[in-house]
TrEMBL record:
Record's signal peptide: none
Protein name: Glycosyltransferase
SUPFAM superfamilies in UniProt: Nucleotide-diphospho-sugar transferases (SSF53448)
Superkingdom of origin: Bacteria
Region (Disordered) location: 22-45
Family annotation (Gene3D superfamilies): Spore Coat Polysaccharide Biosynthesis Protein SpsA, Chain A
Organism of provenance: Pseudooceanicola spongiae
Domain Glycosyltransferase 2-like: 56-177
One Pfam family it belongs to: Glycos_transf_2
Keywords linked to the UniProt accession: Transferase
Length: 359
């Protein structure tokens, strides 16, 4: 599939590429000024006052090679008005200039771009810095990765699902994606989860891929309040899945794949679908890598315990206790907590790791 052909009924990337770059008065671009105030990690100042129907968060670092088609695909998202927060985490390539050209191509229309400086502490910290700076009363909030391509109507479908619920109830949409490339014609839809999305599942795996997530305002407020407590996490989207399910948010699945998830050598976290990837995961579990990632997530969750429902606080307590318990109490407490993974292979691997003390 051509990168540009997926962006139907939208301005093409040619309009982005051909725009002259001016350093002042660029329509569509808001470079947030440095006010000298201490207002959170990575933030340069207050965002412009305006009604935002959809806020899109994208972390950027040396993404010039793939960023252009991703930005163009936002135009076909099915939402007429959005603001893009582009947080550059110290790029040394042309990513920032490309974002500026894209903003200028938007003109004075209903969409605009806010350029930010990331904290330069890793991809998870970059997204946490944006979540911590969300407005006090956020609207819908979507996450994007710099090297993917959104398929048409991704945001409009999510907005329609979320708008069926009362705005006071925390909820989020997650979905499937196409694992894509790098060879032409290589495209595979991600698996359908077999179980329900819930906290007992979120403690040991992430099915709410960040590049498919859309949060309603109530869920975004929880994320904003908890983000300053999440320092040191391994993965921001896994943490969001854990935090929001733990807080009792409603999980809505978009069964139609909504993103081309580009696979390339620079992926921080890839699709991990090959036999080689499977072997690397098992070796990583044996060496304690998986347990270390789980621990990093748990450290943050324990600091965020006040956001969890009483039932999920008890699940968290049992899980933490089970990880430190001798066998066979380890098995008993894991069973009491109801911990599970979404497929048979994952559950076999999980219980094997429990037996070996590698969780």
């Amino acid at each position: 599939m051509s990168e540009l052909n997926v962006v139907k009924n939208a301005r093409t990337t040619d309009s982005v590429r051909s725009c002259p770059l001016r350093h002042e008065g660029r329509p569509g671009l808001r470079i947030v000024p440095d006010t000298g105030r201490s207002i959170g990690p990575g933030r340069l100042g207050e965002s412009p006052e305006r009604e935002v129907t959809m806020l899109i968060l994208i972390g950027v670092r040396n993404g010039e090679q793939f960023l252009e088609p991703q930005l163009a695909s936002l135009l076909a998202s099915g939402v007429e008005s959005w603001t893009l927060w582009a947080s550059d985490d110290g790029s040394s390539d042309g990513s920032v200039a490309l974002i500026e050209r894209f903003a200028e191509a938007l003109g004075d229309g209903p969409c605009n771009v806010v350029a930010r400086r990331g904290p330069q502490q890793g991809f998870a910290a970059n997204y946490l810095s944006m979540l911590a700076d969300l407005p006090d009363v956020p609207g819908l909030v979507a996450l994007a990765d710099q090297d993917d391509i959104w398929l048409p109507k991704r945001l409009s479908r999510a907005a329609k699902m979320l708008n069926r619920l009362p705005s006071s109830i925390p909820a989020f949409v997650y979905g499937r994606r196409f694992d894509w490339g790098p060879r032409p014609g290589r495209m595979r839809a991600s698996r359908m989860p077999r179980g329900r999305a819930c906290f007992a599942n979120a403690l040991v795996e992430n099915v709410a891929f960040g590049n498919t997530l859309v949060l309603n305002g109530a869920a975004a407020r929880i994320a904003r309040q908890a983000a300053p407590l999440a320092e040191g996490i391994y993965s921001h989207d896994w943490w969001l899945y854990q935090l929001l399910t733990g807080a009792g948010a409603i999980c809505l699945m978009d069964r139609e794949p909504s993103v081309l998830y580009r696979q390339h050598a620079g992926n921080v976290i890839g699709a991990q679908g090959s036999f080689v990837d499977w072997t690397k995961r098992k070796v990583g579990v044996a060496r304690g890598l998986y347990a270390a990632r789980v621990q990093a997530q748990l450290n943050a969750l324990e600091r965020c315990e006040d956001f969890l429902t009483p039932e999920n606080r008890e699940i968290l307590r049992l899980f933490v206790s089970a990880r430190q318990a001798p066998w066979p109490r380890r098995i008993q407490e894991m069973r009491r907590a109801g911990i599970f993974r979404q497929n048979l292979e994952g559950n076999i691997g999980f219980w094997g790791a429990v037996l070996l003390g590698r969780i």
